[in-house]
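Exercise 7.
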Amino acid sequence: MSSSKRRESDPIAPYRRRLLGLAYRMLGSRTDADDVVQDAYLRFADARDVRNPEAFLVTVVTRLCLDRLKSAKAQREIYVGPWLPEPIFDTDGLSAEAATELADDLSFALLLALDRLSPLERAAFLLHDVFEISFAEIAAMIGRSEPACRQLATRARHAVRDQRPAPAATPDRHAHLMKAFMEAVASGDLSQLTGLLREDAVAVTDGGGRKSAALNPIMGADKVARFFIGLAGKNARRDIRAEPAMINGAVGALLYMDGELDHSLSMAIDGDRIAAIYIVRNPDKLRHAPAPAAH
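Solution. The predicted structure, written as C-alpha cells, is:
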C-alpha cells in the first residue's frame, strides 16, 4: 500500500508515534495508551474544521490521560503489591520525535519518578520538557494559566532530578552488568552478586495479585542478593530460560519457566553498579512481549 493510501486509511498516521509516546509516558501502560489514542482518533474523525490536527490530537490525548489518571489513583489504592509500568519492547513506536534531553528516555526509573507527580505536573513536564510544546499551548490544553504551567513543570523537573538515577552507564556497561547479574544468580555466588549491586539497591516485583510477588520493595544489596539467590534455589528443578530483550530502551531479559513466559527483568544502572531491579510478573502487563526465539 502506498504511503498516501495509508494516510487516507489512517488520518492520524503522521502523529501516531508521538501520541502513543505521550500517552504511554502519562499512564505507564501501553494497553491504556493504545485505548487513549484510539479514542482520540474517533474524536478527530468526528471533528469539523480542525485547522491544526497535531495540536488537536495532542490536546485530546492529554485530557483523556488526565481523566484516566484520576481513576487510576483509586485503582492503585487496591493494587496488590508494588506497581510497575507495563514493559515496552518497541520504543520506536513511542517516539517523542523531539530533540530534548529526555526524549529517548523510557526507563522505568523515569516512569516511576513521573508516577509520583500530580497528573497536572506530569502533563506540564512531559509536554514541555519531552515533547517541546510551548507553555502557551500547554496552558490551553490543560486549562491553566501559562505561569501556572511553568510552575507545574518546574516542580516536576526538580522532583524528577531528585528521584531518577544518573544515566551514567553506557549501553555496553548495562549489558555487561545484566549478564554478570544473571551469571551470579545462576551460580548462587552471594558475594559476587552483592558486589554488582549498589549498597542501597532496591528490587521491585509486580505481580498485581495475579502471580506471587514480594508485597514490598526489597531494600539493600545483601537482601536483594539473597532474594534472587533464594528464588533460583526454589526453582532449581524447573526448566528456566532467559531470553535477552530490549525493555524500555535498555538491555533486559524475559524469563521463561517450563516454556511459559514468567516475567520480565530490567535494571537501572548507576555508574558501575546496579541501582534497581524491576520484575514484572503480572501477565496483563506482558501481553506485548515478543514471541520467544526458536530453539
